Amino acid sequence: MARTRSTKKLSQRIDREYFKRLYPIGRWRRILSLAVTGIGVAWVFGSLAVNSGAVFNAGPLSKGHHILEGNCATCHTGTSLWGRKAEERACVTCHDGPAHQEQQVFTPPCLSCHIEHKGSAVEITDASCTECHGGLQTKSGKLNVAAKVTGFDSNHPEFKARADAGTIKFGHQVHMKADLRGVDGPVQLKCLTCHAPDRTGQMSTANFERNCESCHRLEFHRKIDKLLPHDKPEVVLALARQALAEYIGAHPGDVNLVEPALDPRIMVQRSGPAGNAAEWIRRGMEDTETLMWRKTCVECHTPSAAREIAKAQIASRWFEGARFSHLPHQLVICAECHSTAAQSKATADVMLPGIQTCQQCHRTANPSASANCTECHVYHDWSKAKPIDAMRKIDELLNR
Ligand code: HEC
Ligand code: HEC
Ligand code: HEC
Ligand code: HEC
Ligand code: HEC
Ligand code: HEC
Ligand code: HEC
Ligand code: HEC
Ligand code: HEC
Ligand code: HEC
Q1: Residue 129, ligand 4, Cβ within 6 A
Q2: Which of 59, 281, 361, 366 is most buried, with most CB under 10 Å away?
Q3: Cα separation of 235 and 237, whole Å?
Q4: Whether 315 contacts 162, CB under 8 Å
Q5: From CA 60, how far away is CA 118, in angstroms rounded?
Q6: 131 CB less than 6 Å from ligand 4?
Q7: 39 to each of 33, 43, 256, 282, how far by Cα in Å?
Q8: Probe ligand 3: pick from 379, 382, 386, max atoms within 8 Å of CB?
Q9: Closest to 122 measured CA to CA, from 359, 374, 364, 314
Q10: Which is nearest to 242 in space by CA: 212, 264, 261, 220?
Q11: Alpha-carbon dihedral sign for residues 35, 40, 45, 51
C-alpha cells in the first residue's frame, strides 16, 4: 500500500502563522499588560505634574511634619539614580538635635532613631539606646554609670537619688500622727495637705505661709494680734518695730502697764512699767528677738552665729538622670512609693522609691506600663540646643 500521507501533506496541516496571529487570550494579555503599565506611568507623571507626590508615599508623616506633606523635597534632598533619599542634613536645617553626652564615642544619625512615614505612633526602640548602653564606652575611658543596661526589668541599676541637703527642720512622722494638735483640736494631715502635683506632674514642696503658719504662728506681742511676716530677719525686725511704734502711738497709756511675759519659759518678767514710748518699744524688740531666736524661727531654722537664715534648699528634683511625673501615678497611694515617709523623723531622710517599686508595672513581660528606655529618659541634652531659623512663607509651606 502506498503511503498517502507524505510529510509535505502533513506539514500543510500545520498553521505556520499560528504564533503571528493574536488569539483572544494572548491578545488580551498583551492589551492588558500594556494598558496597566501605561496607566501606571500616566499616574506617576500625572501626580508629579500636580506635585502631590502621593504615589511614592510610604505612609503618613509624623504629626509635627504633617505640614511638609506637599514638600517632599525638604527632607528628600538626596540625588542618587534610585531616587531622593531623606538626608540628615535636611533635618538639621530645621532643628538642632543636640548630642546626648559629651563623652559619647560616636554620634548615631538622626534617622537611626527617628522613623518617618509611620504617623505619630512610632516609639524609639530600646535598640537605639542599647547600641551603646549594651557595652558602654566613653572618650575618656572612664565610666560614671553602669556599663551594661539592656532592659529596665533585667539589668538596670538601682536608682541613686541625691542626698537631702534641705536646711528646714522637719519630721514627717510627728506631722502624720492621727491626733496632731491643730488650730481647732486634733487633726489628721494628709500628704496632699502640703504637696500637690502641678501640670507637669511635679509635687509642690512645702511653703511656710501655705502649709505651716496655721499651726506655727509667728506671734510676737501679747497686745498686737498681727503676726510677724515670714521673711529675712532684718525685714521681720523692721516690721516688728513699725508695728510696736504704731501700737504705742495709738495706746500711749500702755507705757504704764506691766504685761505678763508672752512665754515665761524663755522671757524675763519685767518688774516695772516702761515709763515712756521709746523704752516700751525697746523692750518689745528685745522680747521679739528672744522669741525669734529661742522659739519661733529656730523651731524650723538653724540660724548662723550672725543670725542669718540659710537657703532652704528643699529639692524639687531627686533623680537627675531620669524624668518622672506624678500625674499618671495619681491612682497610687503615696506610701506605696514613699514607704518610709510616715516614719521619717529628720529632713535628711530620703524617702524615694527603689527600682523594684516601678518594675511591678513597668516591665517587658505582660506590662501594665511601658518599660521602654524613652519612657523615663531623654536622649538629647537640650540645654545645649542652638536656635535655628527655619521660617518660610505660608504659601511655600502649603506649596501654593
Ligand atoms: C520630615 C522629613 C520627610 C518628609 C517631608 C518626607 N519624607 Fe519620605 N522619608 C523620610 C525619611 C526619614 C525616610 C526613611 C529614610 C529613607 O529611606 O530615605 C523616608 C522614606 C521615604 C520613602 C521610602 C523610600 C526609601 O528610600 O526607603 C518614600 C517612598 C518616601 N519617603 C516618600 C515621600 C514622599 C512622597 C514625601 C512627600 C509627600 C515625603 N517622603 C516626605 C523623611 C521625609
Ligand atoms: C522644614 C523644616 C523641618 C525639617 C526639614 C524637618 N523637621 Fe522635624 N519638625 C519640624 C517642625 C516645625 C516640627 C514640629 C515642632 C513641634 O511641634 O514642636 C518638627 C517635629 C519633629 C519631631 C518631633 C516629633 C513629632 O513628629 O511631633 C522630631 C523628632 C523631628 N521633627 C525630627 C526630624 C528629623 C529626624 C528630620 C529629618 C528627617 C526632620 N525633623 C526634618 C520641622 C522640620
Ligand atoms: C539614639 C537615638 C536618637 C538619635 C540618634 C537622635 N534622636 Fe532626636 N530624640 C530621641 C529621643 C529619645 C527623643 C525624645 C526625648 C528627648 O527629647 O531627648 C528625641 C527628640 C527629638 C526632638 C524633639 C521632639 C519633641 O518632642 O519635641 C527633635 C527635634 C529631635 N529629636 C531631632 C533630632 C535630630 C535633628 C537628630 C540628628 C541630629 C536626632 N534627633 C538624633 C532620640 C534620638
Ligand atoms: C552613641 C552612644 C550612646 C547612645 C546611642 C545612647 N547613649 Fe546614653 N550615654 C552614653 C554615654 C557615653 C554616657 C555617659 C557615660 C558616663 O559619663 O559615664 C551616657 C549616659 C546616659 C545616661 C546617664 C547619664 C545621665 O544622667 O544622663 C542615661 C540615663 C542614658 N545615657 C540614657 C540613654 C538613652 C535612653 C538612650 C537611647 C534613647 C541612650 N542613652 C543612647 C552614650 C550613648
Ligand atoms: C505639714 C506638711 C507636710 C506633710 C503633711 C507632708 N510633707 Fe512631705 N515634705 C514636707 C517638707 C517641709 C519637706 C521638705 C523637708 C524634707 O526634705 O523632709 C517635705 C519633703 C517631702 C519629700 C521629698 C524629700 C525627701 O527627703 O524624700 C517627699 C518624697 C515627701 N515629702 C513625701 C510626703 C508624703 C508621702 C507625705 C504623706 C505621708 C508627706 N510628704 C506629708 C512637708 C510635708
Ligand atoms: C496642723 C498643725 C501643724 C502644721 C500645719 C505644721 N505643724 Fe509642725 N508641729 C505641729 C505640732 C502640734 C508640733 C508639736 C508636735 C509634738 O511635739 O508632738 C509640731 C512640731 C514641729 C517641729 C518640731 C518637731 C519636729 O518635727 O522635729 C517642727 C520642726 C515643725 N513642726 C515644722 C513644721 C513645718 C516646717 C511645717 C510646714 C511645712 C509644719 N510644721 C506644719 C503642728 C503643725
Ligand atoms: C514652722 C516652720 C518655720 C518657722 C517657724 C519659720 N520658718 Fe522660715 N521657712 C520655713 C520653710 C518651710 C521655708 C522654705 C519654704 C518657704 O520659703 O516658705 C522657710 C524659708 C525661710 C527663708 C527663705 C530661705 C531661703 O531659701 O532663702 C527665710 C529668710 C526664713 N524662712 C526666715 C524665717 C524667720 C526669720 C523666721 C522667724 C521669724 C522663720 N523663718 C520661721 C519654715 C519656717
Ligand atoms: C509611683 C510612685 C510614686 C507615687 C505613687 C508618688 N510618688 Fe512622689 N515621687 C516619686 C518619685 C520617683 C519622685 C522623684 C522624682 C524626681 O524628682 O526625680 C517623687 C518625688 C516626690 C516629691 C519631691 C518633689 C518632686 O516632685 O520631685 C514629693 C514632695 C512627693 N514625691 C510627694 C508625693 C505625694 C504627696 C504623693 C501622693 C499624693 C506621691 N509623691 C506619690 C514617686 C511616687
Ligand atoms: C501601678 C503601676 C505603676 C507603678 C508602680 C509605676 N508606674 Fe510609672 N506609669 C504607670 C502608668 C499606667 C503610666 C502611664 C502609661 C504608660 O506610660 O505606660 C506610667 C508612666 C510613667 C512615666 C511617663 C510619664 C509621662 O508623663 O510620660 C514615667 C517616667 C514613669 N511612669 C516612671 C515610673 C517610676 C520611676 C516608677 C517607680 C518609682 C513608676 N513609674 C512606678 C504605672 C506605674
Ligand atoms: C520606669 C523608668 C525607667 C526606665 C523604663 C528606664 N530607666 Fe534608666 N533610670 C531610671 C531612673 C529613675 C534612674 C536613676 C537616675 C538617678 O539616679 O538620677 C535611671 C538611671 C539610668 C542610668 C544611670 C545608671 C547609673 O549607673 O547611675 C542609665 C545608664 C540608664 N538609666 C539607662 C537606661 C536604659 C538604657 C533603659 C532602657 C533599657 C532605661 N534606663 C530604662 C528610670 C528608668
Answers
A1: yes
A2: 281
A3: 5
A4: yes
A5: 6
A6: yes
A7: 10, 6, 110, 101
A8: 379
A9: 374
A10: 220
A11: positive
Is residue 132 a contact partner of residue 143, using CB atoms and an 8 Å limit?
A: no
**Residue showing cell 509611620:** 118
C-alpha dihedral over 212, 213, 218, 221, to 10 degrees?
Answer: -150
> What pLDDT, on the 0 to 100 scale, is given for residue 116?
92
Find the largest Cα–Cα distance for the chain: 168
> CA angle, corner 217, sides to 214 and 223, nearest 5?
125
Q: Please list the rounded mean pLDDT of every run of 10 residues in the chain (400 residues).
A: 65 71 74 72 56 62 92 89 86 94 96 91 91 97 97 96 94 96 94 96 96 96 94 98 97 94 91 95 96 97 96 94 97 97 95 97 95 97 94 91
Neighbouring residues of 27: CB distance < 8 A, sequence distance ≥ 6: none
Alpha-carbon distance 282 to 268, whole Å?
Answer: 14
Q: In whole angstroms, what is the distance from residue 333 CA to residue 362 CA?
A: 17
How many whole angstroms separate alpha carbon 136 and alpha carbon 140? 12
Query: Which phi and psi (to 5°) does residue 279 adopt?
Result: -65, -40
Residue positions counted in the chain: 400
Task: Take residue 323 and report the three cell numbers written for it.
Answer: 524624668
| Contact assessment for residue 60 and residue 49, using Cβ atoms and an 8 Å cutoff | no
CB 358 within 8 A of CB 328: no
The C-alpha atoms of residue 254 and residue 267 are separated, in whole angstroms, by 19
Is ligand 5 within 6 A of the CB of residue 187?
no
Residue 162: how many other CB atoms lie within 10 Å = 12
Grid cell locating 329? 501615678
List the residue whose alpha carbon is closest to atom 29 of ligand 7: 232
Q: Which sign, positive or negative, has the C-alpha torsion 367, 368, 371, 374?
A: positive
Task: Give the C-alpha separation, 97 to 388, whole Å.
Answer: 11
